[in-house]
Amino acid sequence: MTMPSPLQRDEYLVAEAIGCAARFHELGLLAEAEKFYAAVLKVRPDHFHALHELAVLRRQQGDDSEAARLIAAALRTNPRSTVALCNFGATLQALGRDEDALKAYEDVLAINPGHIEALIRRGHLLVRLGHDEDALASYRSALETAPRYVVKLMNDGNGLLSRGRTAEAIAAFETAAAVCTEQIDLIERRAAALRTLGRAAAQVRGDGPRPGISYEADAHYHRGAALWALEQYHEAIASYELAHAADHPGALSMLAYCRLSVADWARADELTGELRTSMGKGAFVDAFLSLALGFNPREQMQAAASSLYHLMRAVPEKFRHAPAAPADKLRIAYLSADFRQHPVGLAVAELFERHDRARFEIIGVSFGLADQSATRARIVESVDHFHDMTTATDQAVAKLVHDLGVHIAVDLNGLSGGCRPAILACRPAPIQVSYLGYAATTAADFIDYILADATVLPFAEQPFFSEQIVQLPDCFFTNDTTRRVSPHAPDRRELALPERGFVFCCFNKSYKIVAPVFDVWMRLLARVADSVLWLSELTAPARDNLRREAAARGVDPERLIFAPRAPQIDDHLARQCAADLFLDTLPYNAHATASDALFAGLPVLTCAGQSFAGRVGASMLKAAGLPELATASLDDYEALACRLATDRALLASIRQKLASNHRSRPLFDTDRCRRHIEAAYTTMWDIHRRGERPRAFAVEAAAATNGALT
Q1: 3-state DSSP call for residue 331?
Q2: Distance between CA atoms of residues 7 and 11, nearest Å
Q3: Which CATH class is domain 6-202?
Q4: CA separation (Å) from 76 to 45, 50, 204?
Q5: Per-residue DSSP letters for 27-61?
Q6: What is the spatial distance between Cα 99 and Cα 129, in angstroms, rounded to a whole number?
Q7: CA-CA distance, 563 to 535, in Å (whole number)?
Q8: pLDDT tens across 448-507, in order?
Q9: pLDDT for 330-370, tens place per residue?
């Protein structure tokens, strides 16, 4: 028998050592694995496998710098290892060396153009670098190579790239995680997307579920979020049911939201009762959902406090502020996740442009996904300084605001989608304000004021608001009066509407449509011959359920007509001329949607509710010079709708009044609104300079303007 040579014996021992290291590594015994990798490298300093696997181990230990050094050494031994190159790219990304990471992924693709992991990681990195078209090409290549892995990624990546739609991003990350071997970055990104989505109990970052939530419950919950984003609504609801059965605290709220969104009102009502009971026991209830379900102001405040608790794991350390000194200009920072093609982004662009630069310095702080829209570009141009802090931590954003010496920080999210309340919880500015994006209290003791008006928020409701109420004259809602209505107004035939007959319409989202209001709508269709109800193109389950509910009330389901999404906002405004009357919803009114209708010249009929979110329609109509279209009960709402639908002369007079008021009434006098908001900021600062605590106040009305930019 031939004895092995010393060289062969060394190879055998090295192989044995590598095998032992791999077994310890797999078991998570990193210290033992490290000993064997080190022993191999002592004998064979250039051993590829030992260098690479030790690098993986160093990443697990959090030492990315050493991991990068080790992988670089391994690649000198085997420069064509796609596994090592992919891990090298991920490590370089973790170190903030994005361009070097991109080269690593491109090196992989030069060797194997169909490498799934490199294509997907390259796509994610290009999104972060703002190269959306290149990212889309990378995702498409992945789809062509392995469609079974990335169909969901493509479906949702398109939305992510073109619209900044967070819910679709979630599903993309879920799918990418299924094909990538190292998921740390993907999990972190998914968590950031969930935070932007604004579902309070979904604030799960890469360190696993919150205390008290099982991995099973968490998995079902996040699977529900991904399925909902993928428009697999029934499957999403089933996942949320499983999460609820496994005691996930956020699942009950999401179940109620989903049932409401698909117009499954009977089950939504059952869940509403369960939510109220659980909230009475101190359990979590989503704050935004409490508005849609019509909770009273006291309950909304309780839900907000619950959401705030779940959104912030701990109370962050607060910044200290020197005594207020005189300021030539007040630095106002607007913080938002919605500086994009979004109702908030569309509403604030002209306000930012009009701010008086002699007295105010305007700063935009964005922490939401950026789209490539004209609205985003306009907002960036409209402020004095714009900071994209999408990937920054809450503490880093707060430090930026503090270091900029901001006097007043204005939060445009509240507890709506994309909110990051922990930023202002650090108290980066001496005065902090809630405005526009959330029509309720945040229950946050670090928000000093809320900008509203006397209609939406009377001072009598101060006990239900942690913020001090500031009443602007007219309407709190700011508008973009520079938007245009497309010169091509399609006729009814083009819009699949009947050429004759009365067209009631409502372009609100499905979660705002509830049974009591739908009952009124169906009675109107029954009473007004040849009338139809024109709605937004809702999800398939919502359309099916609404048609079923119509039939149950004796109305032909074909009289419900669903409008597809218009390609541009000016096209959407133009087509509203084909409708006769916009019917508002309750308990959650139309907000931006009502503003759009009125701007387009379409009368809006509303019913005032018992909370801020349910009184926005009344506020807008008063500011538009049409207070007679704001009713106080659903009975009055139904009676007036029927009268307007059957008295053409009355409706024509209303339309003429709206047209004549269009540029003269406060609702569309943005410069007047701007002056009121600036007066509010000045008063807040004066109160602060005197060393007084924030207090409620009303702003004195300014003179009207002709709406021209100065």
Answers
A1: strand
A2: 6
A3: mainly alpha
A4: 12, 13, 39
A5: TT-HHHHHHHHHHHHHH-TT-HHHHHHHHHHHHHT
A6: 9
A7: 6
A8: 999 999 999 999 999 999 999 999 999 999 999 999 999 988 999 999 999 999 999 999
A9: 999 999 999 998 999 999 999 999 999 999 999 999 998 78
CA 24 to chain centre: 43
The region of weakest confidence among 40-54, 165-179, 278-292 is 165-179
Burial category of 289 from C-beta neighbours within 10 Å (exposed 0-12, middle 13-18, buried 19 and up): buried
Question: Any idea where the domains of the chain sit in the sequence?
Answer: 6-202, 255-312, 316-481+670-710, 503-668
CATH says 503-668 is which class?
Answer: alpha beta
CATH code of the domain occupying 316-481+670-710: 3.40.50.11380
DSSP state of 605: E
| Alpha helices by DSSP H, 27-165 | 30-43, 48-60, 64-77, 82-94, 98-111, 116-129, 132-145, 147-163
CA 410 to chain centre: 17
The answer to whether domain 316-481+670-710 and domain 503-668 are alike in fold is yes
Residue 407, burial from CB neighbour count under 10 angstroms (0-12, 13-18, 19+): buried
Partners of 581 in the β-ladder: 504
List b or e across 613-629, with b for residues whose CB sees 16 or more CB atoms inside 10 angstroms.
bbbbbbbbbbbbbbeeb
Largest CA distance in the chain: 112
Tell me the pLDDT band of 172, cut-offs 50, 70 and 90.
low
Question: Are 227 and 236 within 8 A, CB to CB?
Answer: yes
Q: What is the DSSP letter of 565?
A: P
Sign of CA dihedral 624, 629, 632, 638: negative
Query: Which are the contacts of 393, defined by CB distance < 8 A and separation ≥ 6?
Result: none
CA 199, 205, 210, 216 torsion: positive or negative?
Answer: positive
49-85 burial, b at 16+ Cβ within 10 Å, e below that, comes to bbbbbbbbbbbeeeebebbbebbebbbebeeebbbbb
What does the alpha-carbon distance between residue 108 and residue 90 come to, in Å, rounded to a whole number? 12
DSSP reduced 3-state for 639: helix
Cα gap 325→284, rounded to integer Å: 42
SS3 content of the chain, % helix, strand, coil (to 5): 55, 10, 35
